[in-house]
Amino acid sequence: MCEANAYIRNKDKETLVMEAVDLVTPEEGGIRLISIFGDQKFIKGHIDALSLVNHKIYITEE
Amino acid sequence: MCEANAYIRNKDKETLVMEAVDLVTPEEGGIRLISIFGDQKFIKGHIDALSLVNHKIYITEE
């Protein structure tokens, strides 16, 4: 499977916010993360970077 | 492997811009796509959405 773990990146700090993310969709004022298990989380921020071979999604909060 | 294909999304149209993308990094005025083969492409835009189980990265141009 090709899901990835989502991290909020703040300067040098990476905070895991969701594992096994499949979908990330834009939503009013931010983005919605949806995992392969159906878990959902809204984050006021945007996708900053990806490192897919390492299964990482980096998010910057706004 | 967990790379994905990057598409520019414009209304209902999806245009493939790079296959097998591993890294997407922010860069002045846009984002840089880097594939697992080392190909690179700069795009004036941002990551809009992800559908990782389907190996898709959606980009909106600015």
UniProtKB/TrEMBL annotation, chains A, B:
It comes from the Bacteria. It holds the Pfam family CooT. This is RNA-binding protein. It comes from Desulforapulum autotrophicum (strain ATCC 43914 / DSM 3382 / VKM B-1955 / HRM2). The lineage of its organism: Bacteria, Pseudomonadati, Thermodesulfobacteriota, Desulfobacteria, Desulfobacterales.
